[in-house]
Amino acid sequence: MNELDRRQLLKLGAAGAALVAAPRAMAQTPKQGGTMRIGRAHGSTTDNLDPGVWENDFTIGQGFIYNNYLTEIDQNNGLAPELAESWEASPDAKQWVFKIRKGVTFHNGKDVTPDDVVASINYHRGPDSKSAAAGIVSQIEDIKADGDNVVVVLSGGNADFPYIVSDYHLAIMPAADGKIDWTQGIGCGPYKITSFEPGVRGTYEKHKDYWKSDRAHFDAVEQIAIVDAAARTNALLTGEVDVIDRVDLKTVARLKRAPGVAVEQTNGNQHYTLPMLSTQAPFDNNEIRLALKYALDREELLQKILQGYGTLGNDHPIGPANTYLATDLEQRAYDADKAKFHLKQAGLDNLTVDLHMSEAAFAGAVDAGILYSETAAKAGITINVVREPSDGYWSDVWMKKGWCGSYWGGRPTEDWMFSQVYQSGADWNEAFWSNERFDKLLKEGRAELDSDKRRDIYREMQMICRDEGGSVIPMFSSYVFARSTKLDHGAMASNWDMDGHKLVERWWFA
Protein backbone atom coordinates (compact mmCIF):
# COMPACT_ATOMS: atom_id res chain seq x y z
CA MET A 1 0.00 0.00 0.00
CA ASN A 2 1.52 3.32 -1.05
CA GLU A 3 1.18 6.60 0.82
CA LEU A 4 -1.67 7.85 -1.37
CA ASP A 5 -3.61 4.65 -0.70
CA ARG A 6 -2.96 5.00 3.01
CA ARG A 7 -4.19 8.58 3.14
CA GLN A 8 -7.33 7.56 1.28
CA LEU A 9 -7.88 4.78 3.78
CA LEU A 10 -7.52 7.14 6.74
CA LYS A 11 -10.38 9.26 5.46
CA LEU A 12 -13.06 7.76 3.28
CA GLY A 13 -15.81 10.31 2.83
CA ALA A 14 -19.25 9.77 1.36
CA ALA A 15 -18.10 10.42 -2.21
CA GLY A 16 -15.20 8.01 -1.83
CA ALA A 17 -17.48 5.43 -0.25
CA ALA A 18 -19.85 5.62 -3.18
CA LEU A 19 -16.96 5.18 -5.58
CA VAL A 20 -15.54 2.16 -3.78
CA ALA A 21 -18.94 0.54 -3.40
CA ALA A 22 -19.99 1.06 -7.03
CA PRO A 23 -21.14 -2.14 -8.74
CA ARG A 24 -18.51 -3.95 -10.79
CA ALA A 25 -18.86 -4.77 -14.44
CA MET A 26 -20.68 -8.05 -14.80
CA ALA A 27 -20.47 -10.77 -17.42
CA GLN A 28 -24.16 -10.31 -18.16
CA THR A 29 -27.31 -8.92 -16.56
CA PRO A 30 -27.96 -11.09 -13.48
CA LYS A 31 -31.14 -13.13 -13.45
CA GLN A 32 -33.27 -13.42 -10.35
CA GLY A 33 -34.49 -16.62 -8.74
CA GLY A 34 -33.57 -20.22 -8.11
CA THR A 35 -31.92 -22.06 -5.23
CA MET A 36 -28.13 -22.21 -5.20
CA ARG A 37 -26.72 -25.34 -3.56
CA ILE A 38 -23.15 -25.30 -2.24
CA GLY A 39 -21.14 -28.44 -1.49
CA ARG A 40 -18.71 -27.67 1.33
CA ALA A 41 -15.62 -29.69 2.23
CA HIS A 42 -16.01 -28.60 5.83
CA GLY A 43 -18.74 -29.08 8.38
CA SER A 44 -18.67 -30.54 11.88
CA THR A 45 -21.24 -31.66 14.43
CA THR A 46 -19.65 -29.14 16.80
CA ASP A 47 -20.44 -26.17 14.51
CA ASN A 48 -22.71 -23.48 15.96
CA LEU A 49 -23.86 -19.89 15.44
CA ASP A 50 -21.41 -18.29 17.88
CA PRO A 51 -19.43 -15.82 15.72
CA GLY A 52 -16.49 -16.05 18.08
CA VAL A 53 -15.77 -19.67 17.20
CA TRP A 54 -16.42 -19.83 13.46
CA GLU A 55 -13.38 -21.68 12.18
CA ASN A 56 -14.17 -23.73 9.08
CA ASP A 57 -15.47 -22.93 5.61
CA PHE A 58 -19.02 -24.02 6.44
CA THR A 59 -19.40 -21.70 9.42
CA ILE A 60 -17.43 -18.88 7.81
CA GLY A 61 -19.51 -19.16 4.65
CA GLN A 62 -22.70 -19.26 6.68
CA GLY A 63 -21.60 -16.12 8.49
CA PHE A 64 -21.48 -14.23 5.21
CA ILE A 65 -24.84 -15.69 4.15
CA TYR A 66 -26.83 -14.16 7.02
CA ASN A 67 -24.65 -11.27 8.20
CA ASN A 68 -23.10 -7.98 7.16
CA TYR A 69 -19.97 -6.32 8.54
CA LEU A 70 -18.73 -2.77 8.90
CA THR A 71 -16.50 -3.15 5.83
CA GLU A 72 -15.92 -5.81 3.19
CA ILE A 73 -13.28 -6.91 0.72
CA ASP A 74 -14.76 -6.22 -2.70
CA GLN A 75 -14.48 -8.17 -5.95
CA ASN A 76 -11.28 -6.32 -6.86
CA ASN A 77 -9.72 -7.21 -3.48
CA GLY A 78 -10.05 -3.63 -2.26
CA LEU A 79 -11.61 -2.41 0.96
CA ALA A 80 -15.22 -1.26 0.57
CA PRO A 81 -17.89 0.15 2.88
CA GLU A 82 -20.66 -2.14 4.04
CA LEU A 83 -22.62 -1.16 7.18
CA ALA A 84 -20.12 1.66 7.69
CA GLU A 85 -20.84 3.98 4.79
CA SER A 86 -17.75 6.09 5.53
CA TRP A 87 -14.98 6.52 8.12
CA GLU A 88 -12.37 8.98 9.27
CA ALA A 89 -9.30 8.69 11.47
CA SER A 90 -7.31 11.03 13.66
CA PRO A 91 -3.85 11.96 12.27
CA ASP A 92 -2.18 9.32 14.46
CA ALA A 93 -4.76 6.66 13.45
CA LYS A 94 -5.65 6.02 17.11
CA GLN A 95 -9.25 7.20 16.86
CA TRP A 96 -11.64 6.05 14.17
CA VAL A 97 -15.15 7.35 13.49
CA PHE A 98 -17.43 5.10 11.43
CA LYS A 99 -20.67 6.53 10.08
CA ILE A 100 -23.29 3.79 10.21
CA ARG A 101 -25.54 3.31 7.21
CA LYS A 102 -29.23 4.10 7.71
CA GLY A 103 -32.13 2.11 6.32
CA VAL A 104 -30.67 -1.34 7.01
CA THR A 105 -32.88 -3.85 8.82
CA PHE A 106 -32.21 -7.12 10.60
CA HIS A 107 -34.17 -10.24 9.68
CA ASN A 108 -36.51 -9.58 12.63
CA GLY A 109 -37.41 -6.14 11.25
CA LYS A 110 -35.30 -4.13 13.71
CA ASP A 111 -33.22 -1.27 12.28
CA VAL A 112 -29.44 -1.60 12.46
CA THR A 113 -28.09 1.08 14.82
CA PRO A 114 -24.70 2.15 16.16
CA ASP A 115 -25.64 0.46 19.46
CA ASP A 116 -25.87 -2.88 17.64
CA VAL A 117 -22.41 -2.31 16.20
CA VAL A 118 -20.93 -1.52 19.62
CA ALA A 119 -22.51 -4.59 21.24
CA SER A 120 -21.42 -6.85 18.38
CA ILE A 121 -17.79 -5.72 18.64
CA ASN A 122 -17.82 -5.80 22.45
CA TYR A 123 -18.91 -9.44 22.37
CA HIS A 124 -15.36 -10.31 21.30
CA ARG A 125 -13.61 -8.03 23.83
CA GLY A 126 -12.64 -8.29 27.46
CA PRO A 127 -10.65 -10.66 29.68
CA ASP A 128 -13.40 -13.30 29.70
CA SER A 129 -13.83 -13.42 25.93
CA LYS A 130 -13.40 -16.84 24.35
CA SER A 131 -13.63 -15.39 20.85
CA ALA A 132 -11.00 -16.17 18.25
CA ALA A 133 -11.21 -12.47 17.35
CA ALA A 134 -10.17 -11.38 20.84
CA GLY A 135 -6.61 -10.79 19.66
CA ILE A 136 -7.51 -8.45 16.81
CA VAL A 137 -9.92 -6.37 18.93
CA SER A 138 -7.65 -6.25 21.98
CA GLN A 139 -6.24 -2.99 20.61
CA ILE A 140 -9.62 -1.31 21.20
CA GLU A 141 -9.51 0.78 24.38
CA ASP A 142 -12.99 2.24 23.99
CA ILE A 143 -15.92 1.98 21.61
CA LYS A 144 -19.14 3.93 21.85
CA ALA A 145 -22.12 5.13 19.85
CA ASP A 146 -22.28 8.84 19.09
CA GLY A 147 -25.40 9.76 17.13
CA ASP A 148 -25.15 8.05 13.73
CA ASN A 149 -21.50 7.18 14.35
CA VAL A 150 -19.43 4.62 16.17
CA VAL A 151 -16.26 6.04 17.72
CA VAL A 152 -13.37 3.64 18.33
CA VAL A 153 -10.29 4.56 20.36
CA LEU A 154 -7.27 2.28 20.00
CA SER A 155 -4.35 1.70 22.35
CA GLY A 156 -2.02 2.72 19.53
CA GLY A 157 -2.24 3.89 15.96
CA ASN A 158 -3.38 1.36 13.38
CA ALA A 159 -3.61 2.54 9.79
CA ASP A 160 -5.15 -0.81 8.79
CA PHE A 161 -8.02 -0.79 11.28
CA PRO A 162 -10.84 -0.54 8.66
CA TYR A 163 -9.57 -3.84 7.26
CA ILE A 164 -9.79 -5.44 10.70
CA VAL A 165 -13.52 -4.79 11.04
CA SER A 166 -14.17 -6.84 7.90
CA ASP A 167 -13.11 -9.97 9.83
CA TYR A 168 -15.69 -12.72 9.49
CA HIS A 169 -16.09 -13.04 13.27
CA LEU A 170 -17.18 -9.41 13.66
CA ALA A 171 -20.70 -9.90 12.30
CA ILE A 172 -23.15 -7.18 13.29
CA MET A 173 -26.10 -8.68 15.17
CA PRO A 174 -29.11 -7.13 16.95
CA ALA A 175 -28.49 -6.04 20.52
CA ALA A 176 -30.69 -5.72 23.60
CA ASP A 177 -29.41 -4.07 26.78
CA GLY A 178 -25.94 -3.85 25.27
CA LYS A 179 -25.66 -7.57 24.50
CA ILE A 180 -26.12 -9.71 21.41
CA ASP A 181 -27.88 -13.08 21.43
CA TRP A 182 -26.19 -15.07 18.70
CA THR A 183 -28.30 -18.15 19.45
CA GLN A 184 -31.22 -16.54 17.59
CA GLY A 185 -29.34 -16.69 14.28
CA ILE A 186 -30.50 -13.21 13.27
CA GLY A 187 -28.37 -10.95 11.09
CA CYS A 188 -28.90 -8.32 8.41
CA GLY A 189 -27.25 -10.19 5.55
CA PRO A 190 -28.69 -11.26 2.20
CA TYR A 191 -30.34 -14.48 3.44
CA LYS A 192 -32.16 -15.62 6.58
CA ILE A 193 -31.45 -18.94 8.26
CA THR A 194 -34.41 -21.30 7.90
CA SER A 195 -32.66 -24.42 9.22
CA PHE A 196 -29.22 -25.41 10.46
CA GLU A 197 -28.11 -28.97 11.22
CA PRO A 198 -24.46 -28.84 12.34
CA GLY A 199 -22.18 -31.00 10.24
CA VAL A 200 -24.95 -31.72 7.74
CA ARG A 201 -26.60 -28.72 6.07
CA GLY A 202 -28.06 -25.24 6.35
CA THR A 203 -30.93 -23.68 4.40
CA TYR A 204 -31.55 -19.98 3.86
CA GLU A 205 -34.21 -17.80 2.23
CA LYS A 206 -33.78 -14.35 0.74
CA HIS A 207 -34.05 -11.35 3.06
CA LYS A 208 -36.72 -9.39 1.22
CA ASP A 209 -35.61 -6.07 2.72
CA TYR A 210 -31.91 -6.52 1.96
CA TRP A 211 -30.45 -3.07 1.39
CA LYS A 212 -28.16 -4.01 -1.52
CA SER A 213 -30.63 -3.85 -4.40
CA ASP A 214 -28.07 -5.14 -6.93
CA ARG A 215 -27.12 -8.21 -4.89
CA ALA A 216 -28.68 -11.46 -3.57
CA HIS A 217 -30.16 -12.77 -6.82
CA PHE A 218 -31.21 -16.23 -5.59
CA ASP A 219 -34.53 -16.98 -3.93
CA ALA A 220 -32.83 -19.39 -1.56
CA VAL A 221 -29.46 -20.95 -0.73
CA GLU A 222 -28.47 -24.33 0.66
CA GLN A 223 -25.11 -25.39 2.13
CA ILE A 224 -24.36 -29.10 2.35
CA ALA A 225 -21.37 -30.54 4.21
CA ILE A 226 -19.73 -33.12 1.92
CA VAL A 227 -16.40 -33.86 3.55
CA ASP A 228 -15.34 -36.66 1.19
CA ALA A 229 -13.71 -35.17 -1.91
CA ALA A 230 -14.96 -37.87 -4.29
CA ALA A 231 -18.51 -37.54 -3.00
CA ARG A 232 -18.30 -33.77 -3.37
CA THR A 233 -17.14 -34.09 -6.98
CA ASN A 234 -19.90 -36.57 -7.79
CA ALA A 235 -22.48 -34.28 -6.21
CA LEU A 236 -21.53 -31.60 -8.72
CA LEU A 237 -21.40 -33.97 -11.68
CA THR A 238 -24.84 -35.42 -10.88
CA GLY A 239 -26.44 -32.04 -10.27
CA GLU A 240 -26.99 -32.51 -6.54
CA VAL A 241 -25.14 -29.22 -5.96
CA ASP A 242 -24.29 -26.25 -8.15
CA VAL A 243 -20.81 -25.44 -6.84
CA ILE A 244 -18.15 -27.16 -4.73
CA ASP A 245 -15.10 -25.86 -2.92
CA ARG A 246 -11.71 -27.53 -2.44
CA VAL A 247 -11.62 -29.48 -5.68
CA ASP A 248 -9.64 -32.70 -5.42
CA LEU A 249 -6.56 -31.74 -7.42
CA LYS A 250 -5.88 -35.38 -8.24
CA THR A 251 -9.04 -35.46 -10.33
CA VAL A 252 -9.18 -31.85 -11.50
CA ALA A 253 -8.41 -32.90 -15.09
CA ARG A 254 -11.52 -35.08 -15.10
CA LEU A 255 -13.64 -32.18 -13.90
CA LYS A 256 -12.25 -29.89 -16.58
CA ARG A 257 -13.41 -32.33 -19.25
CA ALA A 258 -16.90 -32.75 -17.78
CA PRO A 259 -19.71 -31.09 -19.76
CA GLY A 260 -21.57 -28.35 -17.95
CA VAL A 261 -18.78 -27.81 -15.40
CA ALA A 262 -16.33 -24.92 -15.06
CA VAL A 263 -13.20 -25.25 -12.91
CA GLU A 264 -11.90 -21.92 -11.62
CA GLN A 265 -9.10 -20.68 -9.40
CA THR A 266 -8.16 -17.51 -7.58
CA ASN A 267 -4.74 -16.78 -6.14
CA GLY A 268 -4.60 -15.27 -2.68
CA ASN A 269 -2.92 -15.90 0.65
CA GLN A 270 -4.33 -19.32 1.51
CA HIS A 271 -1.60 -21.47 3.01
CA TYR A 272 -1.12 -24.78 4.76
CA THR A 273 0.62 -25.03 8.12
CA LEU A 274 2.01 -27.77 10.34
CA PRO A 275 1.93 -26.14 13.80
CA MET A 276 4.01 -27.61 16.61
CA LEU A 277 2.99 -26.95 20.21
CA SER A 278 6.12 -25.01 21.03
CA THR A 279 5.43 -25.09 24.77
CA GLN A 280 5.82 -28.88 24.82
CA ALA A 281 8.82 -31.14 24.31
CA PRO A 282 10.37 -31.74 21.88
CA PHE A 283 8.93 -28.76 20.00
CA ASP A 284 9.93 -26.27 22.70
CA ASN A 285 13.48 -26.55 21.32
CA ASN A 286 13.97 -24.36 18.24
CA GLU A 287 16.75 -26.63 17.00
CA ILE A 288 14.16 -29.40 16.70
CA ARG A 289 11.79 -27.06 14.89
CA LEU A 290 14.55 -26.08 12.44
CA ALA A 291 15.47 -29.72 11.86
CA LEU A 292 11.86 -30.44 10.90
CA LYS A 293 11.71 -27.40 8.63
CA TYR A 294 14.79 -28.53 6.70
CA ALA A 295 13.56 -32.15 6.52
CA LEU A 296 10.68 -31.26 4.19
CA ASP A 297 10.82 -31.22 0.38
CA ARG A 298 8.43 -28.35 -0.34
CA GLU A 299 8.78 -28.56 -4.10
CA GLU A 300 7.67 -32.19 -4.01
CA LEU A 301 4.54 -31.27 -2.04
CA LEU A 302 3.75 -28.39 -4.38
CA GLN A 303 3.86 -30.67 -7.42
CA LYS A 304 2.36 -33.86 -5.97
CA ILE A 305 -0.23 -32.44 -3.55
CA LEU A 306 -1.17 -29.16 -5.23
CA GLN A 307 -0.42 -30.29 -8.80
CA GLY A 308 1.36 -26.96 -9.17
CA TYR A 309 -1.68 -24.89 -8.09
CA GLY A 310 0.24 -22.71 -5.67
CA THR A 311 3.64 -21.43 -4.56
CA LEU A 312 6.32 -22.51 -2.09
CA GLY A 313 5.97 -21.54 1.56
CA ASN A 314 8.90 -20.18 3.55
CA ASP A 315 7.74 -20.86 7.12
CA HIS A 316 6.01 -17.50 7.53
CA PRO A 317 2.36 -16.63 6.73
CA ILE A 318 2.75 -13.58 4.48
CA GLY A 319 1.71 -14.40 0.94
CA PRO A 320 1.77 -13.15 -2.64
CA ALA A 321 -1.33 -10.97 -2.20
CA ASN A 322 0.13 -9.07 0.77
CA THR A 323 1.77 -5.67 0.33
CA TYR A 324 4.93 -6.35 2.32
CA LEU A 325 5.92 -9.87 1.29
CA ALA A 326 9.69 -10.12 1.79
CA THR A 327 10.65 -11.64 -1.54
CA ASP A 328 14.35 -11.24 -0.78
CA LEU A 329 14.35 -13.75 2.09
CA GLU A 330 16.18 -16.91 1.10
CA GLN A 331 13.74 -19.69 0.26
CA ARG A 332 14.18 -22.61 2.65
CA ALA A 333 14.86 -25.79 0.72
CA TYR A 334 15.07 -29.46 1.62
CA ASP A 335 18.46 -30.19 3.17
CA ALA A 336 18.90 -33.46 5.07
CA ASP A 337 22.39 -32.45 6.22
CA LYS A 338 21.13 -29.21 7.79
CA ALA A 339 18.31 -31.15 9.44
CA LYS A 340 20.89 -33.53 10.95
CA PHE A 341 22.99 -30.55 12.05
CA HIS A 342 20.12 -29.03 14.00
CA LEU A 343 19.32 -32.39 15.57
CA LYS A 344 22.94 -32.54 16.74
CA GLN A 345 22.59 -29.02 18.14
CA ALA A 346 19.66 -30.35 20.16
CA GLY A 347 21.85 -33.21 21.40
CA LEU A 348 20.14 -35.87 19.30
CA ASP A 349 21.19 -38.31 16.59
CA ASN A 350 17.61 -39.18 15.67
CA LEU A 351 14.06 -38.17 16.46
CA THR A 352 10.64 -39.83 16.43
CA VAL A 353 7.50 -37.68 16.38
CA ASP A 354 3.80 -38.06 15.57
CA LEU A 355 2.15 -35.87 12.93
CA HIS A 356 -1.65 -35.83 13.15
CA MET A 357 -3.23 -35.27 9.74
CA SER A 358 -6.72 -35.25 8.27
CA GLU A 359 -8.42 -34.21 5.06
CA ALA A 360 -10.20 -31.64 7.25
CA ALA A 361 -6.91 -29.74 7.42
CA PHE A 362 -6.45 -29.60 3.65
CA ALA A 363 -7.02 -31.86 0.67
CA GLY A 364 -4.15 -34.32 0.44
CA ALA A 365 -2.97 -33.69 4.01
CA VAL A 366 -2.43 -37.36 4.82
CA ASP A 367 -0.51 -37.94 1.59
CA ALA A 368 1.55 -34.84 2.34
CA GLY A 369 2.42 -36.28 5.72
CA ILE A 370 3.56 -39.54 4.15
CA LEU A 371 5.76 -37.73 1.61
CA TYR A 372 7.20 -35.65 4.45
CA SER A 373 8.01 -38.79 6.45
CA GLU A 374 9.96 -40.21 3.51
CA THR A 375 12.25 -37.19 3.13
CA ALA A 376 12.61 -36.74 6.90
CA ALA A 377 13.78 -40.34 7.27
CA LYS A 378 16.93 -39.46 5.33
CA ALA A 379 17.77 -37.00 8.11
CA GLY A 380 17.28 -39.54 10.91
CA ILE A 381 13.77 -38.29 11.71
CA THR A 382 10.91 -40.78 11.99
CA ILE A 383 7.53 -39.13 11.42
CA ASN A 384 4.57 -41.32 12.34
CA VAL A 385 1.62 -40.00 10.35
CA VAL A 386 -1.54 -40.41 12.45
CA ARG A 387 -4.67 -40.30 10.30
CA GLU A 388 -7.41 -38.43 12.18
CA PRO A 389 -11.15 -38.38 11.30
CA SER A 390 -12.49 -35.19 9.77
CA ASP A 391 -15.39 -34.89 12.19
CA GLY A 392 -14.21 -33.23 15.36
CA TYR A 393 -10.75 -32.51 13.98
CA TRP A 394 -10.83 -28.81 14.81
CA SER A 395 -12.13 -29.38 18.34
CA ASP A 396 -10.18 -32.50 19.29
CA VAL A 397 -6.88 -32.36 17.38
CA TRP A 398 -6.02 -28.81 16.30
CA MET A 399 -4.28 -26.93 19.12
CA LYS A 400 -4.58 -30.10 21.23
CA LYS A 401 -2.13 -32.59 19.71
CA GLY A 402 1.59 -31.86 19.64
CA TRP A 403 1.90 -31.57 15.85
CA CYS A 404 -0.85 -31.48 13.26
CA GLY A 405 -2.02 -30.03 9.96
CA SER A 406 -3.91 -26.78 9.53
CA TYR A 407 -4.76 -24.16 6.93
CA TRP A 408 -5.32 -20.41 6.79
CA GLY A 409 -7.08 -18.29 4.24
CA GLY A 410 -4.57 -15.55 4.93
CA ARG A 411 -5.53 -11.99 5.73
CA PRO A 412 -5.50 -8.76 3.66
CA THR A 413 -2.86 -7.13 5.87
CA GLU A 414 0.30 -8.32 7.57
CA ASP A 415 -0.75 -6.93 10.94
CA TRP A 416 -4.03 -8.81 10.83
CA MET A 417 -2.40 -12.17 10.08
CA PHE A 418 0.33 -11.73 12.65
CA SER A 419 -2.06 -10.42 15.32
CA GLN A 420 -4.57 -13.22 15.00
CA VAL A 421 -2.23 -16.19 14.81
CA TYR A 422 1.33 -15.28 15.86
CA GLN A 423 1.04 -12.66 18.59
CA SER A 424 1.79 -14.03 22.05
CA GLY A 425 -1.42 -15.16 23.71
CA ALA A 426 -3.61 -14.79 20.59
CA ASP A 427 -6.56 -17.17 20.78
CA TRP A 428 -5.65 -18.75 17.46
CA ASN A 429 -1.91 -18.89 18.09
CA GLU A 430 -1.98 -22.51 16.97
CA ALA A 431 1.64 -23.22 17.92
CA PHE A 432 1.40 -21.43 21.31
CA TRP A 433 4.51 -19.62 20.14
CA SER A 434 5.85 -16.51 21.84
CA ASN A 435 8.64 -14.14 20.87
CA GLU A 436 9.25 -10.85 22.67
CA ARG A 437 11.00 -9.16 19.75
CA PHE A 438 8.22 -10.20 17.39
CA ASP A 439 5.54 -8.77 19.68
CA LYS A 440 7.42 -5.48 19.96
CA LEU A 441 7.74 -5.19 16.18
CA LEU A 442 4.05 -6.00 15.78
CA LYS A 443 3.05 -2.93 17.78
CA GLU A 444 5.57 -0.75 15.96
CA GLY A 445 4.42 -1.87 12.51
CA ARG A 446 0.77 -1.34 13.35
CA ALA A 447 1.30 2.31 14.26
CA GLU A 448 3.88 3.15 11.60
CA LEU A 449 2.48 5.29 8.76
CA ASP A 450 5.68 5.39 6.68
CA SER A 451 5.45 2.63 4.09
CA ASP A 452 9.22 2.03 3.78
CA LYS A 453 9.64 1.70 7.55
CA ARG A 454 6.69 -0.65 7.67
CA ARG A 455 8.26 -2.81 4.97
CA ASP A 456 11.45 -3.16 7.04
CA ILE A 457 9.48 -4.06 10.16
CA TYR A 458 7.41 -6.72 8.45
CA ARG A 459 10.48 -8.14 6.73
CA GLU A 460 12.13 -8.76 10.10
CA MET A 461 8.93 -10.31 11.44
CA GLN A 462 8.76 -12.71 8.51
CA MET A 463 12.39 -13.65 9.14
CA ILE A 464 11.70 -14.30 12.84
CA CYS A 465 8.76 -16.54 11.93
CA ARG A 466 10.84 -18.41 9.39
CA ASP A 467 13.82 -19.02 11.66
CA GLU A 468 12.23 -19.24 15.12
CA GLY A 469 8.49 -19.78 14.61
CA GLY A 470 6.49 -22.79 15.72
CA SER A 471 5.01 -23.78 12.36
CA VAL A 472 6.29 -25.48 9.26
CA ILE A 473 4.59 -23.64 6.37
CA PRO A 474 5.28 -25.68 3.24
CA MET A 475 3.09 -24.06 0.59
CA PHE A 476 0.54 -21.47 -0.46
CA SER A 477 -2.41 -22.90 -2.34
CA SER A 478 -4.60 -21.37 -5.00
CA TYR A 479 -8.33 -21.53 -4.33
CA VAL A 480 -9.63 -24.12 -6.79
CA PHE A 481 -13.38 -24.65 -7.02
CA ALA A 482 -15.86 -25.91 -9.58
CA ARG A 483 -19.34 -24.77 -10.55
CA SER A 484 -22.12 -25.65 -12.90
CA THR A 485 -22.06 -23.51 -16.03
CA LYS A 486 -25.65 -22.64 -15.10
CA LEU A 487 -24.07 -20.29 -12.55
CA ASP A 488 -22.41 -17.03 -13.53
CA HIS A 489 -20.53 -14.21 -11.81
CA GLY A 490 -18.45 -11.10 -12.39
CA ALA A 491 -14.95 -10.37 -11.08
CA MET A 492 -14.05 -12.46 -8.04
CA ALA A 493 -12.29 -11.60 -4.80
CA SER A 494 -9.41 -13.84 -3.72
CA ASN A 495 -9.25 -13.06 0.00
CA TRP A 496 -11.20 -16.28 0.63
CA ASP A 497 -12.42 -19.21 -1.41
CA MET A 498 -15.29 -18.79 -3.88
CA ASP A 499 -15.33 -15.02 -4.27
CA GLY A 500 -14.31 -14.27 -0.71
CA HIS A 501 -17.24 -16.40 0.56
CA LYS A 502 -19.58 -13.77 -0.93
CA LEU A 503 -20.84 -15.94 -3.80
CA VAL A 504 -24.37 -16.10 -2.38
CA GLU A 505 -24.86 -12.36 -2.85
CA ARG A 506 -22.68 -11.80 -5.93
CA TRP A 507 -23.43 -14.75 -8.21
CA TRP A 508 -26.58 -15.69 -10.14
CA PHE A 509 -28.03 -18.33 -12.44
CA ALA A 510 -27.26 -17.64 -16.09
Automatic annotation (TrEMBL):
GO cellular component term of the entry, any: outer membrane-bounded periplasmic space
GO BP annotations listed: peptide transport
Occurrences of domain Solute-binding protein family (ranges): 79-429
InterPro entries documented for this protein: Peptide/Ni-bd, SBP_5, SBP_5_dom, TAT_signal
Gene3D superfamilies: Dipeptide-binding Protein, Domain 3 (3.10.105.10), Periplasmic binding protein-like II (3.40.190.10)
Keyword Transmembrane recorded: no
Stretches the record annotates as Disordered: 26-50
Subcellular location: Periplasm
Keywords for the protein's UniProt record, in alphabetical order: Signal, Transport
One term of GO molecular function: peptide transmembrane transporter activity
PANTHER family in the cross-refs: PERIPLASMIC BINDING COMPONENT OF ABC TRANSPORTER, PERIPLASMIC OLIGOPEPTIDE-BINDING PROTEIN-RELATED
Family per record: Belongs to the bacterial solute-binding protein 5 family.
The name this protein goes by in its record: ABC transporter substrate-binding protein
Organism in which the protein naturally occurs: Thermohalobaculum xanthum
Lineage, uppermost ranks: Bacteria, Pseudomonadati, Pseudomonadota, Alphaproteobacteria, Rhodobacterales
